[in-house]
């Protein structure tokens, strides 16, 4: 299982450091978006710091190995130099700069362009009111015969762990740049699994509250969770077809050994897709149950209000009749008329109260 890093510069030797300047400082365009640039030969990272021009020249002069460049939220000016060096198609470059793409796999000449959505679960303690439960980012990958370029958008798409773990498995990296794509895809899908497990815990908590007796339900929280599940669904579902194409020999850049790895990632994605679909159905059921419970509670409240109105209206009616200023009224001249009237009012209220209580209106 591979994870994903903010690419760090490693294996620096003094001689190599004097011979090659860093990709940030030496780039003529000042490509501050370059996080790391490395050359791998037979699965082993060559020492030193490289610019993208030097890295490409080294690999093609050796006719062996590949270049892995990591970029973070580059603008058009910063990515132009890399695009020119590696011959990236302008439409793919535009997508990589502006982001907001759905997961996909496209071929431009001899280069593949892949988009993945990255997700991150926000725990309760770090979550503000009505804030996102699942934060998302984007990860674009350019795959060529001897290079792989990753473009990250958002803090959820870090690739440091992926690069570190891959460098600790030189036999896997020796399979070529497609092994890097597999490592990234495997990490992204594993993060989907982790997020769905956390979302499952939240939904279980909501389900317990919905079906527990005499509990107040916050329908807003369910709607918020449903919105986040829909966002997770938009990240997961479209990725199935790109993984199937990579596992099925869509390009010669993916050797047979790596295709089997992509099939394994695809199997994990199927598990995630089934979970997300079940979340959507369960949340729809919880919304219906919550609305039914709220309606029942409202009906109960209305019965209580109606019962108290009936109880109060009886003495009000009697008082209203005897409040009329007619000279000839029954019992107005009787000495016990006033206390008897009060007793009648109290008796009527008690009788009505017991009737409503017996019928569970109060």
TrEMBL record:
It is found in: Cell membrane; Membrane. It catalyses: Mg(2+)(in) = Mg(2+)(out). The chain crosses the membrane at residues 305-324, 336-356. Residues 1-31 are annotated as: Disordered. GO terms for molecular function: cobalt ion binding; cobalt ion transmembrane transporter activity; magnesium ion binding; magnesium ion transmembrane transporter activity. Pfam families: CorA (PF01544). Keywords: Cell membrane, Ion transport, Magnesium, Membrane, Transmembrane, Transmembrane helix, Transport. It comes from the Bacteria. It is a multi-pass membrane protein. One of its GO terms (cellular component) is plasma membrane. Belongs to the CorA metal ion transporter (MIT) (TC 1.A.35) family. Mediates influx of magnesium ions. Alternates between open and closed states. Activated by low cytoplasmic Mg(2+) levels. Inactive when cytoplasmic Mg(2+) levels are high. NCBIfam families: corA. This is Magnesium transport protein CorA. It comes from Actinopolyspora mortivallis.
């Amino acid at each position: 299982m591979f994870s994903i890093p903010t690419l760090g510069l490693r294996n620096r030797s003094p001689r190599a450091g004097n011979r090659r300047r860093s990709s940030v400082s030496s780039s003529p365009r000042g490509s501050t978006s370059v996080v790391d640039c490395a050359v791998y030969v037979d699965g082993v990272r060559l020492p030193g710091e490289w610019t993208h021009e030097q890295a490409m020249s080294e690999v093609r002069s050796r006719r062996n190995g590949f270049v892995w460049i990591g970029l973070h939220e580059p603008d058009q000016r910063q990515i132009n130099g890399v695009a020119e060096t590696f011959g990236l198609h302008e439409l793919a470059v535009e997508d990589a700069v502006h982001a907001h793409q759905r997961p996909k796999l496209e071929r431009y000449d001899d280069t593949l362009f892949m988009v993945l959505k990255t997700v991150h679960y926000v725990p309760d303690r770090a979550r503000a009111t009505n804030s996102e439960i699942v934060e998302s980012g984007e990860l674009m990958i350019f795959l060529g015969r001897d290079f792989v370029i990753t473009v990250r958008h958002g803090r959820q798409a870090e690739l440091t762990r992926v690069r570190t773990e891959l460098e600790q498995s030189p036999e896997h990296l020796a399979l070529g740049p497609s092994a890097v794509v597999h490592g990234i895809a495997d990490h992204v899908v594993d993060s989907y699994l982790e997020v769905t497990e956390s979302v499952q815990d939240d939904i279980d908590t909501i389900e317990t509250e919905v079906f527990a007796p005499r509990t107040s339900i916050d329908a807003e929280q369910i709607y918020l969770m449903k919105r986040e599940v829909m966002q997770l669904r938009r990240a997961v579902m479209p990725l199935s077809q790109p993984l199937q194409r990579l596992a099925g020999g869509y390009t010669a850049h993916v050797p047979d050994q790596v295709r089997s790895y992509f099939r394994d990632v695809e199997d994990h994605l199927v598990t995630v897709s089934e979970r997300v679909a079940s979340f959507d159905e369960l949340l729809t059921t919880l919304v219906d149950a919550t609305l039914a419970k709220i309606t029942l509670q409202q009906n109960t409240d209305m019965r209580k209000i109606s019962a108290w109105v009936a109880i109060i209206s009886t003495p009000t009616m009697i008082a209203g009749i005897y409040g009329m200023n007619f000279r000839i009224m029954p019992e107005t001249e009787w000495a016990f008329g006033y206390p008897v009237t009060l007793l009648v009012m109290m008796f009527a209220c008690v009788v009505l109260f017991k009737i409503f209580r017996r019928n569970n209106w109060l």
